[in-house]
Amino acid sequence: MYKRTIWDIDQEGTDEDMERIGQWPQQGIAQLTDDLLVSGRMYKGFTTLASGTAAIEVAPGRIYDGGAMYALEAELSMSAAEFVPITAGQKVYVTLIGQGREDDGYVEARNYEREVPQSGGGTAIQQVPQTGARAKVRSAILTLYPGAPSLIPVKPSIPLGTVAIADILVGTGGIESIEMRTANEAPELDELATKCTGLSGRLDLVNQEMAGLRNDMAALARQIKGGVSPETFRASQGEIAKIKQVLAIPDTGSPFSADNFLDDSESDIANVDYKARVLEGIRFPAANQDKKPLALYNPNDGNLMHASAGLICPKYTVIEGIKLADRAGTMPLGGTVYQTLELTQMLMSRQETAYGDYFEACENSEWWQSGQYDPAKGILRIGNETYEISGTVGNYDWTGHQIKRLRKFWTTTVKEPYDVYAPVAHTIQGVIKAQSWLQSQDRWSPGMRLYLDSWSAGAEITVTVVECGEDGRPQKGRMLTKTTLAASQFKRWPEATRFPFAVPSFRQSGKQYAYLIATTGDVTAVYAEGQKFLSGNLLESTDGGSFYVGDLTRDLCHVTEYCSFDLTSLTVPLQGVNLDGGIHNLRIRNAEVVPNNSSRQFQLQVGGAWRTIEDPAGEDTLFGSGVTAYYDFRLVLNGNQWAMPILDMGASEVELFRADDDFCHISLPLVLGTSLQTVVISTPVGAWDPARHTIAVRLRHGAGFASLKTHTAVETKPLIGKKGVVRADAYEKIWTFSFAGAPISTCKVDIVGTTNNPRVTWHVEGRVQTTE
Questions:
Q1: Which of helix, strand or coil describes residue 388?
Q2: Inter-residue contact 159 to 145 (CB < 8 Å)
Q3: Are residues 385 and 514 in the same domain?
Q4: Would you place residue 627 in the very low, low, confident or very high pLDDT band (cuts 50, 70, 90)?
Q5: What is the model's pLDDT at position 335?
Q6: Can you say whether residue 371 is alpha, beta or left, with left for phi > 0 and alpha for psi between -120 and 50 degrees?
Q7: pTM of whole model > 0.70?
Q8: How many domains does the chain have?
C-alpha cells in the first residue's frame, strides 16, 4: 500500500518485479489491518454447531494474526468421538483452536516457452504446458484441543500461536454444550460505530447534567456560606475529612484533608529537613537508639531445647499422644495422580511490648480498627521486611488481636498462635493423601509416626501439617511445618516410622488439623477400619489440593507425638540491655505462642530486684532518672506439663532509645483542587505541658515549596475525649493562614516542636486541614 511497482516503456520484466506485484499490496493490507482494525490474534465466523452426538460442523471463517488474514472457505466437519470420557460422571472440555498457515494453492497448467530438441538436430523455441501452484493461499487450520477428563472439568490452556474459537463440553453421552469464545471474536466496524454513537449521545446528556450540578453546587456553596458560621462550616469539613480516612478516600483534589499519623504514607520522609517519628502520632525522633534481636545469656542452658534453631523452648520429653495402630489391612500411599502443591507456611504470631515515658497513650490508636491501616505492618514489622495482612490465604485477617494503650505501657497481642503476615512458600510433589483429626486440647507436637508395610527403592515421603477449614478440607495456605524421609529411613510394621519436625509446632484446642502426605515411588501403608478413629478422615487430593475425596471406611495407622515439658516454671537469662548515655524507653517485638493458662514475662533487674515490664503503678518507672545504661534481662515462663510458652528469637527485635528534644514533621504535598485564600490547620496534642513544650505550624508553598508561610492567628481549645470529658493533658491547636491576593492550590504542612527535657515528651495526635 505504501510501495508500488513501476514500469518503463520497453522495460524487461523480472521475477522480482512480478513477486512485488503480488506481495506489496498484501503486506500493505496486513499492516493496515493490524494498525487500524484488528491487532493481535482474533477470529471472525467459524460458527460451530453439533451435527451428531460427537460431531460438529464449523462454518467458514477467517483468522486475523498480526494483520494477516487466514481463511476457511468451505464448511468443515469434525469429530470429537476420541475425546468422549469412558469413566462415568467425568466430562472434558475440548477447545476448537485455529492458526494460520500459508500453503501453495490453485495448481493449474500454464504454457512455458522452452528450447525443445529437434529430430534433425538443434533446438527450437516451443510452448510447453507445465503444471504448478499459481497462488500462495493463507489457510485457517482448525484443530480440536482437549483438556483433562474430570468430575469438575477445566478448560485447557491453548498452545502459543493459536486462537481459541469455541469450547465444547463432552460427557460420556457425547457433546453437551458448545460455547463460542466471543472475547476472541473480531469486532465489526458498523457495530462499533453504533455503540460509539450511543455513547456520544449519553455523554452529551451527562455533560448537560454536570453543568447543571455545577450551578447547583455553586448556589449551594453560597447558601452554606450565608447560612452557617465559618466555625461550623470548618468543623463539618473536618468531620468529612475524618470519614474519608475511615473509607480510605484519597485527599487529592479536596480542599480539606486529614492524617491520623498511624503510618508515614502521607509524610515526606525523604525531605532533608524531616526529623520525626510517626508512631501513633508525631513523636520525637531518637537521640540515641539501639536495635538487636533477643538472645540467650547461655545458649547451652540445659533447661532449653532448639536454641540453635533460634527458639526459647523449655526442655521436653517426646510421648505418644493420639495413636491408631489397629491394623485392618494395607493400602498404597502412591498412585498415578502425581500432583504439585504450592503451600504457604505460617509463622508464630508476633507480639509487642513497649514501656517508657515516650509511650503516652494517643486516642488515634483506635483507627487501627478502621480497616484502612495495616496493624501488622504498622506495629509488628521489623526493619524493612514484608510483614502485612495477606488477604489471599483463607478467610483469616486481623481480627484475633488486642491492642492495649496505657500511659507508659503499650501491648499488642495476637490471639491466633500462627499467622500469615510474613508468608513463606513451599512446594511438595507426589501422590497426595491426607489424614485429618480434631485437636481436643492445647498441645505442642515435635513429630508424627506412620506405619508402613512395604516400599520401593528410591521412594520418598513428605509429611506436612496444615490447618483444616470449617468444611474439614486441608488448607494448603495454612501450613505449620513439614519434614521429608527417604526409603532408607523407613521402618516396617509393627515398628512405626518417625517423621520428626525441625521444631515443635502448636496444636490449638478445638481446631482441626491434617497431615498432608506426598509420596513418590511405591509405598504401602497400614490402615485401620474407619470406626476405630472417629475424630478425623482419610482424604485424597484429586486436583492440586482444592478438592479432596474422603474415605469413611478406613484411616491411616499413625501416632501424633506430644511434648511433655520437664519444668512448668522456668527462668531464662537473656543478654542484658545496654544503651550509652542511659535508657529511657524500651520496645520489644517478638514471635511467640503463649497457650491458654500459661504466661511469659520480660523482667529487668532494677535496684537489685527483678521487676516485670508491665503497666506501671502510679508514676512508677523502671528506668528511674534514665541515666542507667545497662540492665540485666530475663524471661520468666509459666505453664503446665503440656502447654508452655515458646518464643522465636529469629523474629524478634529489642529497641532501646532516648528521645531527642526537638522534631520537624513535613507532610507530602496537599493538592487542594482549587485556589484557597485561607487555610486552617487543626492539631490535637497529647501529654502537653505549656511550661515545657512548644509547637509551631508552617506552610511550604510556591515553586519547589521553597516559600515558608507562618500563621496569621493561632487558637488553643480544650480537647474533648471519646467519653465527652475534657482531657486534662491534651489541647487542640488551631492555626489560620491567610493568602489574600495570592491564593494557593497546593502546599506542604510543617509541624515543629520542642521539649526542655527529653524525658518529658509530647505528641501530635493528628492533623485536620480545612478552609473558610
A1: coil
A2: yes
A3: yes
A4: confident
A5: 67
A6: left
A7: no
A8: 4
